[in-house]
Design goal:
359 residues, mainly beta, Immunoglobulin-like, 3 domains, five-stranded mixed β-sheet, 2 helices, disordered N terminus, Ig-like_dom_sf, immunoglobulin domain, cell adhesion molecule binding, glycoprotein, membrane
């Protein structure tokens, strides 16, 4: 009877309902290629019994019924869960192969209504070793820094999956207050995470070591580090020369700024959850001199939650400016416009993001 029901259900499109949220475990499955016995579970809150459960496994041609009373039609895939009577169903993949990367889907029926759950399956990829880069508007010639002037640095962990977790240390002591929000960008299932550091160099910082640690399960020891020795310059005779050289540069208008939302910020169809932390980066590329930013929420100037601007100079002498805004989302933000305005001697340009919120 169950086998006949399953065959019929596969031929009928589902009308998915809202109201019940299918609980999935895990929420995301990040595993190494060849991982064995991956459990994928879908359950109805409260253990309400289900009428049926249909699953679609990435790499498997067609959906099928997942039941403790029905053998699965796919080799290497077995039933997993507490049973339909307890609102539970899922599968175990004996071995995760490249074809299994993608989104696992389950459709559960309760009292004639159908509800869907999903689990993303992706292979872990070790990021490149982290690097610390010094902002191009900071004089670090000969690896030395001027007393009292800002040391602006960026730590980057590139092309890993999932994103690495960054932390900073100055001579072994954790750094907290000098950091901007970490910003993550995902391209082709590879995550790059960056974070900016800013601190005025003090006498006691001489000979200390600034360290950025990237933590990731795919690293042999669980983490890798990049280090920047901090050494005070005995004099700052280069300051006037540097300023003079910059002033002689021919103006080049930067590209229009872009606003990017960090990939690790949860959104619902582009909407931000009230009470969550929004992380947004503004970028303007290839300007000479570098562009500077002003941020607005509607007509109100935004100045809290901004990281220090970070500049990167290319081989042609043009600068890319990056700045990150970290802000707690409020219900009153709904419908407001976040603006990043790039200022430059050649003129101003701006980019806008209309905020949508949900509770």
């Amino acid at each position: 009877m169950i086998k006949l029901l399953a065959s019929l259900l596969l031929l009928v499109p589902f009308a998915l309902c809202s109201g019940i949220v299918v609980q999935t475990a895990p929420k995301f499955a990040f595993v190494p290629e060849g991982h064995q016995n991956l459990n994928l579970l879908c359950e109805i809150p409260g253990s309400n019994p289900i009428d049926f459960c249909i699953v679609k496994v990435p790499g498997v041609a067609a959906p099928f019924a997942a039941s403790e009373r029905l053998p699965t039609p796919v080799q290497g895939v077995t039933y997993f869960g507490r049973g339909w009577s307890k609102g539970s169903c899922g599968v175990t993949l004996a071995k995760v192969e490249p074809k299994n990367e993608g989104t696992f889907e389950c459709v559960l029926s309760v009292a004639g209504q159908t509800y869907k759950g999903t689990i993303d399956i992706a292979f872990k990829v070790a990021p490149e070793p982290p690097v610390i880069e010094v902002s191009s508007n900071v004089d670090d010639s000969n690896g030395e820094f001027d007393y009292g002037k800002p040391l602006i640095a960026k730590c980057a962990s590139r092309n890993g999956w999932p994103a690495a977790k960054l932390s900073w240390y100055l001579d072994g002591k954790p750094v907290v207050n000098e950091l901007g929000a970490a910003f993550t960008e995902v391209v082709d299932k590879k995550a790059t995470v960056e974070q900016f550091y800013r601190k005025a160099v003090a006498v006691e910082d001489n000979r200390k070591k600034l360290v950025c640690r990237a933590e990731h399960e795919s690293y042999p020891n669980g983490f890798m580090e990049a280090a920047l020795p901090v050494k005070l310059r005995k004099s700052n005779n280069n300051a006037n020369l540097i300023q003079k050289d910059v002033s002689k540069d021919v103006e080049v208008k930067p590209s229009a700024p872009k606003l990017l939302v960090s990939s690790d910020v949860p959104t619902n169809d582009g909407s931000f959850r009230v009470g969550s932390t929004m992380v947004v980066e503004c970028v303007a590329r290839d300007g000479k001199p570098a562009a500077t930013f002003l941020w607005f929420l509607d007509d109100q100037l935004v100045y809290e939650g901004l990281s220090t601007p970070f500049l990167t100079q290319n081989s042609r002498g043009a600068f890319t400016t990056q700045q990150v805004l970290q802000r707690v989302v409020k219900a009153s933000d709904n419908g407001k416009t976040l603006v990043c305005k790039a200022r430059h001697p050649s003129g101003t340009s701006e980019t806008r993001l209309t905020l949508k919120t949900y509770s």
